[in-house]
Amino acid sequence: MVAATSIDGSELGALLHWPDEMVRRLPSALWLPADVDDELPLVTLLGTSWESYQWCGLGTWFAPGTAPEPPAGFAGRYSDLQHELIAEGSLTTARGLKVRSEWSTLNPRSGSLHAFLSAIRQARGSGSCLALMAQDASPRAWYAASTAMMQRGLLALGGIGDVDREEADRSASLTYLAAGPASGYASVIPLDRHPWGGYAVVGDQTLLSALAEALPDPLAGLAEASWEDVAGRAGSLAL
Questions:
Q1: Measuring CA to CA, which residue among 112, 129, 104, 99 is closest to residue 201?
Q2: Which terminus in the chain has less CB density within 10 A, N or C?
């Protein structure tokens, strides 16, 4: 078994394949890769080890305009995951799609936590994200910064005119990640399973150090894979 390690912003940027001027703004990350079969027990262990922190999640869901009801939110999709609603919003796009977004604190011991993280991976962060904060921190700054990720979900539906979507996606993601250290949150970003799963927790080094100290050493379920291993196999973050 291996222990959790840290990677710096330049190493995180190499995984994202972003331009150098963007990489220079990236914070450090706690590096937590996992084999696909070990990901569920790893998430369970992270939820237990970091139970004293606030887990803050954003979800955005869509339904056809002809649907009789708006899309289901956290409570309707994930058993026992939602703890307390922070904010919510709904709209109908120009193309007639119904959109629902919810910002909530989450129960880290919920069996649905892994399912939500898998949904974030599938969406590659478009309209969804997960962050960790100290219990005495206010989620308002995270909520404000995470609206950039909600906008990514809307960008995926088109309607951005002459703007290149890839550039807009990168800019929104960078805004969210770079705001973490000053705003007191660390972003939990899934690896894309090419070939490793697991997570990178991106944020202020002081917060990352506290999170690392709360983990058992060695950490069961953690893969012995460096960021170079992942990048060398064309792996990346699901962002």
A1: 129
A2: N
- Summarised one tens digit per residue, pLDDT across range 138-180 is 999 999 999 999 888 877 666 555 557 788 888 999 999 999 9
Place of tokens 């190493």: 11
Structural domain containing residue 71: 5-232
Query: Does 222 map to a domain?
Result: yes
> Is residue 137 domain-resident?
yes
Closest CA to 233 of 192, 173, 188, 189: 192
pTM above 0.90, yes or no: yes
Biggest alpha carbon–alpha carbon distance for the chain: 52
Inter-residue contact 186 to 203 (CB < 8 Å):
yes
